[in-house]
């Protein structure tokens, strides 16, 4: 587990320093997150592989640059936190959200994609200025 967290930390630091807006790119590997939070500051999420993001874990999108969720594969998130003053996060691929979509700052823009909450997911923190839009 600690090796995976170190890999995440390395990738986030590498992307932050070697590209203006980078990608957290999953390709072919099996990414497992059993708890805790992956923080992507001004980094996009791209999934073309397989992920296992279990209940109790979150991916947090932060920063001041518009971020995207994309890839060839649908990502099943346990939880998503949006705290992005640069416009928020938009979808270029459908997503599933099993637990919580929490909006602190910014938009969660569907862009004609689907965010499937199933029977267990829910939205929190939405207000007039920070919300889901299509």
Would you mind describing this structure in some detail?
It contains one helix and twelve strands, in the order αββββββββββββ. The chain is mainly beta. The radius of gyration is 14 Å and the shape is globular.
N-to-C span = 37 Å
Helix content: 10-25%
Q: Determine the structural class based on helices, strands and strand pairing.
A: mainly beta
Largest sheet, in brief, is: 10 strands, parallel
What pattern of helices and strands is seen along the backbone?
HEEEEEEEEEEEE
Total beta-strand segments? 12
Report the uncertain regions: 9-21
Shape: globular
Number of helices: 1
Mean pLDDT comes to 80
Looking at this protein, list some descriptive labels.
1 helix; mainly beta; single chain; 134 residues; ten-stranded parallel beta sheet; 55% strand
Short description:
With 134 residues, the protein is mostly beta strands.
What is the fold's blueprint, element by element?
Layout: H1 2-18, E1 22-26, E2 30-33, E3 36-41, E4 43-47, E5 50-53, E6 57-63, E7 67-70, E8 75-91, E9 95-109, E10 115-116, E11 122-124, E12 132-133
Parallel strand pairs: 1-4, 2-5, 3-6, 4-7, 6-8, 7-8, 8-9, 9-10, 9-11, 9-12
């Amino acid at each position: 587990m600690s090796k995976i967290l170190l890999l995440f930390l390395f990738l986030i630091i590498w992307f932050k320093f070697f590209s203006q807006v980078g990608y957290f790119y999953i390709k072919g590997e099996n990414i497992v997150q059993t708890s805790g939070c992956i923080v992507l500051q001004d980094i996009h999420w791209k999934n073309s592989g397989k992920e296992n993001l279990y209940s109790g874990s979150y991916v947090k999108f932060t920063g001041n640059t518009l971020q995207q969720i994309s890839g060839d594969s649908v990502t099943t998130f346990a939880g998503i936190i949006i705290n992005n003053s640069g416009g928020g996060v938009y979808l270029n691929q459908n997503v599933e959200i099993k637990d919580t979509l929490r909006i602190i700052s910014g938009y969660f823009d569907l862009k004609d994609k689907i965010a499937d909450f199933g029977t267990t997911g829910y939205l929190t923190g939405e207000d007039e200025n920070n919300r889901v839009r299509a």
